[in-house]
């Protein structure tokens, strides 16, 4: 690769990152506004939910005042926004703790689970996708197709529940719930999260493998691949050297989508394995109408999604000389 | 006898306290309590709303946690009779002025001694709106709470209430150190000390070696977690990851019973899901309509199909058959389509179409509504079942429709139940019925110290509710806990699962 094109590639990427950063901030703002408005439409508020069935009007009014819920909606939103801009996501109405503290406890759990699942899922998905593309129409391809298609079709709660029945209740190899304690060793931790990782991986491997296969096959029909075949290039070299640079953009895009799911969409897996992650925290926040916590979770998920998308786009630019030159 | 909690009672009770509470039912008598063991307990829910403040306790997980770390002035035994706890003695001649003498030498977990000042502060904080106490309404009857010595205090009520010792045994009235504002950890006098509390994740309790009941508690450590998903909870029990779980669904009982190492603890309770027929509007306020609906409830079917037999047939009033004040001579209302049709015709409602609101929030109500719909169609009543989400049900739908469902947890006294849900001016008088005779009886029974007379008064009230109130109560729902058989000393307490949420103090591990 020539130095000039890679330099212009870098600058193109930097401009893109700059633009993306600005539009990401705008997106975050709009998301926070949307969530705030939608949460207002939900029946009840934090005071009512906290006091529950047995609350009287006076108690609710007193608690509402204490929580600051008696102020008009736009003022509450504005004060949340100014807090957020200055780096303070506010006070959780329900936990009586700063939101930052509540999230600091859960976010590492979620990130770790997502990272470990990605570590398992990405290589496996790439291997399955490329392998079945190279054997297109062959036995291996058909077998892998059946496996991945059925994995896409099976919902995660079923995968998780069946896995628990087999590995925990019958065989007793793995714990049925993912307990996380401060004094755990890495071995204990990995044993605890083995099944959540397995479940999450199965869900995303299938999607990513399908996309990888499609992207690689799409390139295989191009004339340049035919040329390489005619030249007698070895199949593995064709895929790695010729096809992958062209197929990488859609593959990374698909992976970014799947990985963002690992962070925010893990709620069912978190529920079944009782894993203290961010997604179940957000569900908590919705049911208890804890606005500051809900907003903070939404911001994190949204930001994670935007960052993954940004990485996908930058990878696409760096991998494609035509985009680099622009 | 001055009250169920008079001095003469106490001498016996105080001496027999340890033995009385420890002696388990015949089957368990072979096992002797021993110190040691760690267990993990899974409760129903766990979220950021978890609290160490007893006044704010809202869910079973909270009650269990609070009974682990704190003690109350009194404590209910398995028959719901109040026994002395932090109060060594509690007596009243008029049921208005109560004199309390505290046990001496009780220490908080931080070493401070329990004094009357702590108790006064703990009781009076419920009257402060800023506390956000669930018991604010009940605490309104504390006219005066005053220390009269280092270990003595006086409670003056706004009116006579013979149930005060029972009321004070509830988890909300557990005793805190005076001036406690920070609830990140617990400083109580309870059987376990708070080693870790992380809302929504776990609570860890370590044995309190200085607990005021000698020899107790037995377990070295209890880890309390919440597993909201029932299937996961039962799986966790069966896989050995937890040793005690609350709220096993009747559908899962077969799975637990099939496991040799696990058992089920059925607690007959006063929990019920009831049909609400709003009395302030028509047609649901028509007495013939109310009667017709009560005849349309197929109670044995609800007991069998919805609860797999883990329920007790009810008779449209909230006092369950095992309650000391239950009136046995009231005729049982049964499914009777002819009577229902006749009442509907008298009400002029044949062929009318009515919406009924049900929700997963009121346990079993969706299925009950469907059963009602089915029988209704046979007598010319068209019910449209509106299934609404459980989220926000209590603030948005409960008591806001002419025909809907409610769900009421067991209360420790008949007075609380009737005062909260059936008195004409009660905030949760669900059907909005108004019966002056009932209200008068309620006040009279509250101040009545004579048990026989009390039973008679409460009996008449049960009859009034059954015949006239706009609620239909088909069954009382049993609570089912699942446990590892190595855990010993469990017995049912009808107030709630996990031995009325107080298992921590009583159970031991044999494994």
Helices and strands of chain A: which structural class? mainly alpha
Described by the principal axes of the CA atoms, the overall outline of chain A is globular
Oligomerization category of the chains in this entry:
heterodimer
**Number of alpha- plus pi-helical segments of chain A:** 14
| Side-by-side strand order of the widest sheet of chain B | 8-9-10-1-11-20-12
Q: How many beta-strand segments of chain B?
A: 22
Low-confidence stretches of chain B: 6-28
- Cα(first) to Cα(last) distance of chain B is 45 Å
Number of helices of chain B: 17
Kindly state the percentage of residues in helix of chain B: 25-40%
Q: How many strands of chain A? A: 0
Polypeptide structure, described:
The complex is a heterodimer of chains A (326) and B (511). With 326 residues, chain A is an all-alpha fold. Chain A is 79% helix and 0% strand. Chain A has helices at 3-41, 46-51, 57-67, 73-85, 99-134, 139-153, 156-170, 186-220, 223-231, 235-264, 267-272, 278-287, 291-319, 321-325. With 511 residues, chain B is α+β, with helices and mostly antiparallel strands. In chain B, 29% of the residues lie in helices and 21% in strands. In chain B, strand 6 and strand 7 (152-157) form a beta hairpin. Chains A and B meet through helix 2, helix 3, helix 7 and helix 12 of A and helix 6 and helix 12 of B.
């Amino acid at each position: 690769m020539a130095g000039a094109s890679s330099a212009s590639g870098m600058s193109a990427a930097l401009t893109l990152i700059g633009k993306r950063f600005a539009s990401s901030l705008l997106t975050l703002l709009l998301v926070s506004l949307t969530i705030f408005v939608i949460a207002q439409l939900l029946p009840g508020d934090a005071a009512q939910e906290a006091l529950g069935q047995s609350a009287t009007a006076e108690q609710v009014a007193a608690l509402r005042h204490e929580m600051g819920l008696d102020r008009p909606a736009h003022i509450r939103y504005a004060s949340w926004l100014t807090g957020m801009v200055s780096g303070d996501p506010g006070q959780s109405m329900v936990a009586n703790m700063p939101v930052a503290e509540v999230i600091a406890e859960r976010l590492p759990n979620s990130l770790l689970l997502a990272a470990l699942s990605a570590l398992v899922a990405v290589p496996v998905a790439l291997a399955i996708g490329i392998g079945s593309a190279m054997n297109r129409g062959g036995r291996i391809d058909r077998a892998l197709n059946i496996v991945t298609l059925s994995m896409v079709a099976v919902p995660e709660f079923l995968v998780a529940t069946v896995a628990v029945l087999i590995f925990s209740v019958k065989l007793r190899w793995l714990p049925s719930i993912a307990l996380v304690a401060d004094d755990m060793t890495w071995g204990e931790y990995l044993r605890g999260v083995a099944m959540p990782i397995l479940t999450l991986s199965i869900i995303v491997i299938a999607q990513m493998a399908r996309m990888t296969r499609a992207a690689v096959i799409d390139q295989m029909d191009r004339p340049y691949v035919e040329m390489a075949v005619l030249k007698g290039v070895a199949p593995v070299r064709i895929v790695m050297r010729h096809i992958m640079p062209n197929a990488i953009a859609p593959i990374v895009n698909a992976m970014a989508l799947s990985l963002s799911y690992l962070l925010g969409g893990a709620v069912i897996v978190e529920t079944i394995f009782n894993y203290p992650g961010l997604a179940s925290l957000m569900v908590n926040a919705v049911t208890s109408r804890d606005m500051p916590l809900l907003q903070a979770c939404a911001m994190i998920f949204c930001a994670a999604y935007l960052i993954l998308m940004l990485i996908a786009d930058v990878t696409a630019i760096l991998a494609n000389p035509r985009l680099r030159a622009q | 006898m001055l009250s169920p909690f008079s001095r003469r009672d106490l001498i016996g009770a105080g001496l027999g306290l340890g033995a009385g509470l420890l002696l388990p039912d015949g089957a368990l008598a072979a096992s002797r309590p021993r110190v040691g063991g760690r267990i993990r307990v899974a409760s129903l829910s766990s979220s950021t709303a978890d609290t160490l403040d007893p006044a704010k306790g809202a869910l079973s997980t909270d009650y269990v946690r609070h009974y682990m770390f704190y003690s109350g002035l009194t404590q209910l035994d398995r028959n719901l009779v109040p026994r002395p706890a932090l109060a060594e003695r509690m007596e009243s001649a008029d049921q208005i002025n109560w004199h309390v003498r505290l046990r001496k030498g009780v220490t908080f977990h931080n070493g401070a001694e329990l004094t009357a000042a702590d108790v006064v502060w703990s009781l009076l904080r419920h009257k402060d709106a800023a506390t956000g106490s669930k018991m604010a309404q009940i605490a309104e009857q504390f006219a005066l709470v005053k220390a009269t010595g280092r270990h003595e205090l006086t409670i003056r009520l706004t009116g006579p209430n013979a149930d005060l010792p029972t009321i004070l045994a509830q988890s909300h009235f557990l005793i805190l150190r005076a001036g406690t504002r920070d609830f990140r950890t617990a400083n109580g006098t309870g059987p376990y000390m708070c080693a870790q509390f992380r809302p929504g994740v776990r609570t860890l309790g370590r044995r309190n070696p200085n607990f005021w009941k000698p020899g107790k508690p037995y377990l070295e450590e209890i880890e309390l977690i919440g597993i909201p998903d029932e299937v996961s909870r039962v799986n966790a029990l069966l896989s050995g990851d937890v040793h005690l779980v609350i709220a096993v669904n009747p559908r899962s009982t077969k799975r637990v019973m099939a496991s040799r190492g696990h058992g089920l603890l059925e607690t007959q309770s006063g929990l019920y899901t009831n049909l609400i027929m709003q009395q302030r509007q028509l047609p649901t306020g028509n007495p013939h309509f109310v009667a017709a609906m009560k005849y349309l409830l197929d109670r044995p079917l609800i007991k069998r199909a919805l609860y797999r037999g883990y329920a007790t047939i009810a008779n449209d009033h909230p006092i369950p058959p095992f309650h000391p004040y239950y009136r046995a001579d009231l005729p049982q209302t049964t499914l009777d389509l002819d009577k229902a049709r006749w009442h509907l015709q008298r009400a002029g409602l044949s062929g009318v179409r009515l919406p009924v609101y049900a929700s997963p929030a009121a346990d079993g109500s969706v299925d009950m509504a469907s059963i009602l719909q089915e029988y209704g169609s046979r007598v010319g009543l068209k019910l449209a079942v509106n299934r609404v989400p459980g989220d926000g049900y209590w603030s948005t739908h409960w008591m806001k429709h002419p025909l809907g469902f409610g769900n009421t947890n067991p209360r420790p006294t008949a007075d609380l139940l009737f005062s909260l849900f059936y008195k004409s001016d009660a905030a949760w008088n669900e059907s909005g019925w108004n019966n002056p005779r009932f209200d008068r009886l309620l006040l009279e029974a509250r101040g009545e110290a004579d048990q026989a007379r009390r039973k008679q008064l409460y009996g008449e009230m049960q009859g009034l509710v059954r015949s006239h109130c706009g609620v239909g109560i088909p069954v009382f729902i049993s609570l089912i806990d699942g446990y590892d058989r190595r855990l010993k000393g469990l017995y049912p307490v009808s107030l709630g699962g996990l031995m009325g949420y107080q298992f921590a103090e009583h159970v031991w591990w044999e494994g």
